[in-house]
């Protein structure tokens, strides 16, 4: 199987004070933003839960490196948390207003997280995405974010995504096809549930 489940040793203890402070402020900003702007495809995941999973991965030998990317980074909260855990963190988001908010959040907390406005769907994969089905919010109509980042999808060591239920399959397929061998995909599945998988072999 190209993707194998991993079970990182997630600790239940609360986040450090600086992370807790960041989470409170991020929550406040997201709530305020959502009162003012409607972006139907943007639904925040569970940043505190994502922090625990990423902390477990960061403390383990389950990752091959520290280059992190959030596919569909929304407000950028998880990417910022990855930066706090000393990942080399970037986020790709198609909605410019969210990219602006994410950049502001990172800047206000002095975090070196990079946000790019564009699509995480690699160039050439658009047909594959459309062939796999129709999606509520996943779009392929955007600039190639990887070129702006100066990265290829297989450079990424850890990818985080919160796909809508109808996008889960295609998100996995993109990771299986374009991710690097040994790279890890973390997905949030709602209800506090995260799934962590490693790509173990190239797909034929
Ligand atoms: C369910 S939200 C998750 C937001 C964020 N990852 C989080 O955990 O809070 C999915 C995000 O993906 C974005 N999105 C959808 N298709 C995209 C694409 N092809 N490239 C980049 N972002 C995309 C949406 O605009 C939305 O902000």
Structure report:
The protein has 204 residues and is of the alpha/beta class. The chain has one domain (3-199): Rossmann fold (3-Layer(aba) Sandwich), CATH 3.40.50.150. Helix content is 37%, strand content 16%. The protein has helices spanning 17-36, 47-58, 77-84, 96-108, 126-132, 145-149, 168-178; strands spanning 3-5, 67-71, 88-93, 114-117, 158-161, 184-188, 194-199. The protein has a seven-stranded mixed beta sheet, with helices on both faces. β6 (184-188) and β7 (194-199) form a beta hairpin. The relative contact order is 0.18. Residues 41-45, 70, 72-74, 77-78, 92-95, 98, 119-121, 137-139, 142, 162 line the site of S-adenosylmethionine.
What structural category characterises the helix and strand content? alpha/beta
Mean pLDDT: 93
How large is the radius of gyration?
16 Å
What small molecules does the structure contain? S-adenosylmethionine
Spatial strand order of the main sheet: 1-7-6-5-2-3-4
Largest sheet: 7 strands, mixed
Architecture per CATH nomenclature, i.e. the level-2 architecture: 3-Layer(aba) Sandwich
What's the N-to-C terminus distance?
11 Å
* CATH H-level superfamily: Vaccinia Virus protein VP39
| Silhouette | globular
Q: Regarding CATH, which class?
A: Alpha Beta
Low-confidence stretches: none
Q: How many domains, as an integer? A: 1
User: Could you name the CATH topology?
Assistant: Rossmann fold
- In terms of DSSP E residues, the strand content is 15-25%
> Given the structure, what is the number of helices?
7
């Amino acid at each position: 199987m190209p993707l194998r489940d991993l079970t990182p040793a997630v600790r239940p203890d609360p986040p450090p004070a600086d992370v807790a402070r960041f989470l409170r402020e991020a929550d406040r900003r997201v709530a305020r933003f959502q009162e003012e702007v409607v972006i139907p495809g943007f639904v925040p995941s569970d940043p505190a839960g994502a922090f625990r999973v990423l902390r477990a991965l960061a403390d383990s030998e389950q990752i091959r490196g520290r280059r992190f990317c959030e596919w569909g980074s929304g407000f950028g909260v998880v990417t910022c948390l990855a930066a706090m855990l000393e990942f080399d963190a970037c986020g790709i988001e198609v909605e410019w207003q969210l990219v602006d908010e994410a950049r502001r959040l990172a800047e206000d907390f002095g975090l070196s997280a990079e946000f790019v406005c564009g699509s995480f769907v690699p160039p050439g994969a658009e047909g594959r995405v459309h062939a796999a089905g129709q999606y509520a919010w996943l779009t392929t109509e955007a600039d190639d974010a990887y070129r702006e980042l100066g990265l290829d999808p297989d450079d990424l060591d850890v990818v985080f995504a919160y796909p809508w239920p109808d996008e889960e399959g295609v998100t996995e397929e993109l990771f299986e096809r374009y991710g690097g061998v040994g790279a890890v995909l973390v997905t949030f599945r709602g209800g506090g549930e995260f799934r962590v998988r490693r790509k173990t072999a190239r797909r034929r």
